[in-house]
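[job 4471] stage=fold_predict status=RUNNING
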Amino acid sequence: MDFKNKIKKFNLKWIDYEEIKKGRKIVPEIEGVYLFKFYKEIDTISGEKTDIIYIGQSFNLGHRLIQNYLEGRGGKTTQRIHNNLIKRKYVSKIKVSWHPTQNRKQLESKLLKDFENIYHQLPCWNRSG
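[job 4471] inference complete, writing structure tokens
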């Protein structure tokens, strides 16, 4: 089973990150899990392809996706993602979606484990460096 089938049950609605950056789309200030999807599929070490490049969780999705990642407020991981989105100009090539849940840490952990079991690696932006 590929990862797309694993996340299908969440009925995710993908939004261009550029639309959030321009203020055209609102991100709710709720807790949940979020995913970044690249504009095309990329190779993984398992030989399979995926377009999911990041899986994360936050107590406040609006704050995380706007203030942290777009404005660059935060620690090492936040700065790395901010640099990819803004300085390297990937923001126009990324779609984002989220799933509201109070069990955000557990769901993030399960999704990362499922991803790693399928592709034998974490999503590329979940890896440091």
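[job 4471] summary: The radius of gyration is 14 Å.
[job 4471] exit 0
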